[in-house]
Amino acid sequence: MNEAAAALSQVPSSASTWAWRVVRGGLIGMAAHGLLALGLLGAGASVWPGWLPACVLAGIVAAPVRDTVVDPRGAPRGLVIAVVIVLAAVLVALAFGALATPARHWDGFVAWEMRARVLTEAPTLLQPYFTDHAVFAQSRDYPLVQPLWQASLAHLLGSGGRALFPSLWAALLATLGLALRRGGWPGRTCWLAVAGLGLMPMLVTPTSGAVDSGYGETAILLALTAAGAGLVLRDGLLLGAACTLAVVLKPEGTIYALVVTAAAWWSGERRLVAGAALGSTLALAVWLPVRTFLAVGPAAAASVAWTPRLAALTAVTPLLVWVRPSVGRRPTIWLLAGAAAVVLATAAALGSDEGALGGYLHNLRVLPGRLARVPALLAALCQQALALQRFGLLWPLLALAPFAAGPRATRPRGLGTLLALGLAVVCASMLLSPEEDFDHHVRSSLDRLLLQWTGPSVLLIATWLGQHAAQTHATQPAPSQA
Amino acid sequence: MPIPWRRICGALALGHLAIAAARVPFDVYGKRWRRIAELRQRGEVRFFLDTKEHDGAAAVDWILQHTQSDTVVLHRGATSGAVEFVPPLIYPRLLYAECWVAGDGSIPLHRPVASGPIDGRRATAVLVCEPEQRGKVQRLRIEAR
After folding, report:
1. B23 and A135 in contact by Cβ < 8 A?
2. Across the interface, do A135 and B17 touch by the CB < 8 Å criterion?
3. Mean pLDDT for all residues in chain B
């Protein structure tokens, strides 16, 4: 793909390189901040608010970006102007919605905003809210990095901590558009994809899970979109940052990081497997001890032996990195053995702790008995697929796009696997939920979990429907040099 | 005749953009503005706890009115539903499970326990949350311990 694209008479785009350096470096810096912050919290220290901009700046300055060629087919000026105007209008609404009041939706207020307030007051775990289990704390073992970002911004910007949310939305769109552009897709495809995701009704209308609702959905959506971008661009460092972000942002992010690692592993490129596995392992190594502290309290957490668990996780990384590309694509038994090793090592690392994720893992043993819920789940999925007020026509488009792609379409390896595994995990989570009221759980959670995968979905649709530079090169004369 | 998949997908993509863009004036702006205005007008406490599902604004108002910001407020009853909104509304006061209080009434946090005038006498306060039942209003109330 890259060779064919390079063969076109194209020129490097310094604007694209500069913008991508900011976006990619920013994502890597945010992941580094997550690791640093959790490490400090786990050690009983405070997290200095200035670490957030310092890490982001360091990521932008230090993370190398290769100058690359982009497809010279830009977008029509009218399309660019229209998309910029509409998205700017949405950004104004999101920024106003974020800054005008505190969170206005349930979990955004009681779980995420509450912890942001506690961490704004004192960015440390050594305070009763975290150490004393008699103190009421909803979603006690949820990851703390998003509230920490909000608390850091609140310190740095006065009361503007919630400026985080429209910033995440802007970073999400920049990641999607620039990844497609630098991956060799024409400007029109990139702008349409950005508009399709940026205007996603559930993301921008005021509802639970929307950008300014205070929930963690936008942040995890950004992490998964960055993972998709890493697969499109074959960028191991970005993939590693995406896995780290997924783990440190939401409980289900641990499973998503495994899904990203599995997709990278399936694609068979050593640098991608290494990036995803290392990013996931590093994040789990700092997050799991903190999670245990939050879930069972400081006294019980001190008795947990972390060395064998982290050793199990660490041991599986070289296995993933070296075995998969060596065995090639044919010996399925090796692939299954590797997948089993990942699952076992993760299960060993997660142990038997209670908590948001533990509740789901424990229900693996009752999964056969819950298969009777599959028809109801399928009905709910169909309902969501056609819920125009939440997802527009995204899911019908995703279902039909493979037929439109044709045999010559450029398909980034691993992206389809990522989405298929991700959506399978969403469905499995509905069946494994510890909540007894299945209908209520599906009603309250399914749409938000699907929202998290809209970024990779738009990325995949764009790569299927957009005409890649390599395809153009194969069917048309090369365009003249700009 | 082959099915024109690309045209169908192109139409779906345009439809998606049209549906999404059409929601900007009424939902992205209109609905958001109404919610913001409602919260500003009613205040956080009433916005979350004086609703069709929850009746607890008076109890939280009592806490805010009668207790210092460093106090610990005891609670008992349901731990889901309306009571979930209380910690951020009363922060930096903390909500503390009554069942963990020692026999002599002390708590290990070295903070004062919330107390004030209840039913005409001064007493230690307990926030009581009724169980959550679908279709019924869930109430919070302040009782003397």
Report:
1. no
2. no
3. 93
Q: CA B100 to CA A135: how far, in whole Å?
A: 9
Chains A and B form CB pairs within 8 A to the count of 136
Q: Are A289 and A256 a contacting pair, CB within 8 Å?
A: no
- Listed in sequence order, the residues at least 6 apart from A426 whose beta carbon sits closer than 8 Å to its beta carbon are A446, A449, A450, A452, A453
Confidence of residue A2 (pLDDT cuts 50, 70, 90): very low
Cβ of residue A100 closer than 8 Å to a chain B Cβ: yes
d(Cα A409, Cα A115) in Å, to the nearest integer?
46
Tell me the chain A residues in contact with residue B110 when contact means C-beta distances shorter than 8 Å: none
| Cα dihedral A442, A448, A454, A455 sign | negative
Do residue A93 and residue B17 have CB atoms under 8 angstroms apart? no
The mean pLDDT value for A55-71 works out to 86
Which of the residues B3, B7, B9 would you substitute to probe the A interface, choosing the one with the greatest number of A C-beta atoms within 10 Å?
B9
Residue A353 has pLDDT above 60, yes or no: no
Question: B17 in contact with A at a CB cutoff of 8 Å?
Answer: yes
- Amino acid (1-letter code) at residue A307: T
State the pairing for strand pair B72-77/B121-129: parallel
Longest dimension (CA), chain A: 71
Residue A421 near residue A482, CB atoms below 8 Å: no
Which ranges constitute the DSSP H helices of A386-437?
A: 388-391, 394-405, 415-432
- The interface residues of chain B toward chain A in range 116-145, judged by CB-CB distance below 8 A, are none
For residue A222, how far is the Cα from the chain centroid? 5
Window B:38-77, CB contacts with A under 8 Å:
39-40, 44, 47-48, 75
Per-residue pLDDT tens for B13-24? Answer: 999 999 999 999
Question: What pLDDT, on a 0 to 100 scale, did the predictor assign at position A146?
Answer: 98
pLDDT bin (cut points 50, 70, 90) of residue B49 is very high
Cα A37 to Cα A125: distance, rounded to the nearest angstrom:
11
Q: How far apart are CA A25 and CA A19, in angstroms?
A: 10
CA–CA gap between residue A69 and residue A67 (Å, rounded): 7
Percent of chain A having pLDDT more than 90? 60
In the stretch 375-404 of chain A, residues with CB closer than 8 A to chain B read 388-389, 392-394, 396-397, 400-401, 403-404
A127/B contact by beta carbon, under 8 A: no
- Per-residue pLDDT reduced to its tens digit, A219-248: 999 999 999 999 999 999 999 999 999 999
Partner B contacted by A110 (CB < 8 A): yes
Distance CA B110, CA B91 (A): 17
Bridge partners (DSSP) of residue A12 are A69
Specify the pLDDT at position B101: 84
pLDDT single digits (tens) A94-145? 999 999 999 999 999 999 999 999 999 999 999 999 999 999 999 899 999 9
Report residue A158 as tokens: 């006065």
